Amino acid sequence: FEKYIPFVPLKMEHRSWPDKQITKAPIWCSVDLRDGNQALVDPMNLQEKLEYFHTLLDIGIKEIEIGFPSASETEFEICRELIEGGHIPDDVTIQVLVQARPHLIQRTFEAIRGAKHVILHFYNSTSTLQRKVVFHMDMPGITKIATDAAKLIYELSQSVIAEGMDLRYEYSPESFMGTEMDYAAEICQAVLEELHATPEKRVILNLPTTVENCMPNYFADELEYFISKLPSRDCAIISLHPHNDRGCGVATAEMGLLAGAERIEATLFGNGERTGNVDIVTLALNMHTQGVDPELDFSHINRIKEMYERCTKMKVGERQPYAGELVFTAFSGSHQDAINKGTQYMRDSGSGKWEIPYLPIDPADVGREYEPIIRINSQSGKGGAAFVMQHSFGFDLPKAMHPEFGHIVQVETDRVGTELKPERIYELFRENYIDAV
Ligand code: KIV
Ligand code: ZN
């Protein structure tokens, strides 16, 4: 990522730097195996969850929500297998979700027995709408659900902590974005107090958009206000859990980090309820291309994509940022020409800086190849054919040949009406320049 030149908005050049920027990776937490899994037509079986879990480890994710063990026998058994089967490295914390309900909390404590590092994540819904339509409760009633749960969790945790478990707590005021911010701060403060949070033993306050209902800048303003109203702010890790209902999950997360969040819950390729959770791949690689180390390894994106598609039975779209089949492909002539020139420029300059127009990231950084960057169809120009000859076959065509050979290729694309593969480009070259001699 050092090869990337951080983006400085042009209008800001007279200043030293924009007021705020993301300068370091947040704490990442994967919720693939819980939020992602619960949104699948066919939830993953044990083998699939294990394979997925190991991929998350390979990526370098250190906090992984493995499920909702009190929700079903299957979920409980998967949790037990992960713990008893020795799948969890010592530097990884598993997270388990539970509703703020006593019998489910009890069952969750049974599910985590014997684990080394655990985040116990409990939630209840706090929004105006949910209070009115679902719970028929006022604010004190909703607060009591949260504080009673916090009290029970704190009590039950004392014995497992005494036995050596590193147990931390996370509270989510579900539907945070539909909650009055003063009330959100009040209920979170009450939970922090019940859990005896201190600056040394911070509790994760996870603020889910749940259903994304506003613009990212508005969310960031609300978040700043919420933080300013939280008396024990220094006893909390502010975590975000953006969903993508308005298609703005990534922007919400980025704006939220600027507004003071330190942790992000996300999923690979944005799987999750409805339109999904925020996509961890896009977030991490957006940082990467701004010269910030995301501390995650996506250098083999195709392998991750293959595992994801197999285990979830979902497809990664062709235009999915950084991972889609077509995102390192340029069909149009002017783009191909510019990429070609950028490649040449980089080679000549030797600076090592990534300065190729139309390609925000070096495909090699995610284990993709240069070869498919340029694909040739009837929209392609002279530069594209020359690029393919160079990158696929090592022929450095002299500049003077580009227009003529480009024309030969264009005539062929018009004739066949489909994309030409590199092998066909080579054939055309051979027919016209080698065999013709
Ligand atoms: O989206 C949401 O609100 C959730 C909570 C359970 C954290 O998934
Ligand atoms: Zn969610």
TrEMBL record:
Compartment list: Cytoplasm
Pathway stated in the Swiss-Prot or TrEMBL entry: Amino-acid biosynthesis; L-leucine biosynthesis; L-leucine from 3-methyl-2-oxobutanoate: step 1/4
Record key words, sorted: Acyltransferase, Amino-acid biosynthesis, Branched-chain amino acid biosynthesis, Cytoplasm, Leucine biosynthesis, Magnesium, Metal-binding, Transferase
Major location category of this protein: cytoplasm
An example molecular function term from Gene Ontology annotations: 2-isopropylmalate synthase activity
EC identifiers of the protein: 2.3.3.13
Residues holding Mg(2+): 35, 241, 243, 277
Record keyword Zinc present: no
Cofactors, names only: Mg(2+)
Catalytic activity reported: 3-methyl-2-oxobutanoate + acetyl-CoA + H2O = (2S)-2-isopropylmalate + CoA + H(+)
Keyword Transferase: yes
Function in brief: Catalyzes the condensation of the acetyl group of acetyl-CoA with 3-methyl-2-oxobutanoate (2-ketoisovalerate) to form 3-carboxy-3-hydroxy-4-methylpentanoate (2-isopropylmalate).
Quaternary assembly: Homodimer.
Recorded family membership: Belongs to the alpha-IPM synthase/homocitrate synthase family. LeuA type 2 subfamily.
Protein name: 2-isopropylmalate synthase
